[in-house]
Amino acid sequence: MVITTLLCHLFAVCCPGNTVRASDSCFLLSLSSAFRMALIQLQISSVKSDNVTRACSFIREAATQGAKIVSLPECFNSPYGTKYFPEYAEKIPGESTQKLSEVAKECSIYLIGGSIPEEDAGKLYNTCAVFGPDGTLLAKYRKIHLFDIDVPGKITFQESETLSAGDSFSTFDTPYCRVGLGICYDMRFAELAQIYAQRGCQLLVYPGAFNLTTGPAHWELLQRSRAVDNQVYVATASPARDDKAAYVAWGHSTVVNPWGEVLAKAGTEEAIVYSDIDLKKLAEIRQQIPVFRQKRADLYAVEMKKP
Q1: pTM of this structure
Q2: Which residues are catalytic?
Q3: Is residue 298 part of a domain?
Q4: Which interval of the chain is the signal sequence (predicted)?
Q5: CATH of the domain at 114
Q6: Distance CA 31, CA 165 (A)
Q7: Does the residue 163 lie in any domain?
Q8: Residues 70-117: pLDDT tens digits?
């Protein structure tokens, strides 16, 4: 009874806004306070099958190093660009995601499949598929904020030329923690992260491909901001940099802890980034600086309009 009470307290600290019942004790007892995460910073080519094959190879390598949750980068099977999305788009399930399902089962890991251009009912989406250790599709997240920007003299990009926006949130549960999903530009919208924290997420994962203009200015800043604002771990998986590509990714896949410290960070080259996620640290920070209990719900609120 004492163990269950202590675990319930830990869960309440880690998952603000969630009601903990005695019936949750079996789930709580199964939680592990630490696990290894891997981010695969993949060099993307114009050959889809090669991208998928090499991604699966890196996933296997990460699993042998003890990773329990592995993430691929945004558009891992396709060059990033509006002219490429229609050419590389596929259904989910489909060719690329079937391979991800198989390798997740083979390695018995939770696999966040970065994102791929998805075709559904005549529309294209930038979509992340997540697979469990048995190969089951656990979640599918369609990027809700499209990357439409214009920085004069530096970069203009309009995802909405070919892509449609998603309209729902996506989380999934693991034996370690609840995970919330976003893709790249979604990281700029603090409300999304706040809602995920309200829903009990302790880890937010954003496969993303910032560029040479926004990357040096905002990539790490936004990750640390989302982590500190919501007292969560934040992980970002970028493609490796290819200076010859039409769209040059910033790289620097990163893991940040709830204190805003960078735990692990890649350079620009192809690499696997590992980080040990410690949920006891998260609980300690939330106890020391209890912002969730101190929020003024009588004065303001961030609410979810649609599940």
Answers
A1: 0.90
A2: 74, 143, 184
A3: no
A4: 1-22
A5: 3.60.110.10
A6: 34
A7: yes
A8: 999 999 999 999 999 999 999 999 999 999 999 999 999 999 999 999
